[in-house]
Design a protein that fits this description.
By secondary structure, this protein is an alpha+beta fold. The chain has one domain: Sandwich (Immunoglobulin-like), CATH 2.60.40. The chain is built from one helix and eight strands; from the N terminus they run H-E-E-E-E-E-E-E-E.
Length: about 110
Amino acid sequence: MKRILLAALLGLVSYSAVAAEAPFTVSAGPSNAGALYSKVNITSRSDSVVIKKIIVNRGNCQDAEAMPWKPVRLGFGNSVDRLFVGKGFMSACRILEIAVDTDQGSWSFNTSQ
C-alpha cells in the first residue's frame, strides 16, 4: 500500500513540475513613454497561447494604453508589449509582480526591477 501511495505521489509531483512551466516568457522594464510608465513584454514559447489578462502588482498598477485590453493569441516567437502606470495621480509603476491569465492556465512572475 505504501508503494502505491509513493508512486501516486511521485506521479503528482512530476505532473505538477511539467504543468508549472509557462508557455511564454515575461520581461518588464522602463518604457520610452516617460518616467511614470513601465513596459511588460510577453513572448510565446508555444505554438498558440491566448493571453487573456495581465495584472501588474496585484492590480496596483493600471494599463496605460489608449485602447482597452482584449485577449490576444500569440504564435511561437510572437510577442505583445503593454504599458502600465501607477494608480495614483502622476504615480509611477515599479513592477514587482506580473500575473498572466491564459487559455492554458495562470502564472505569476516576480521581477527584480
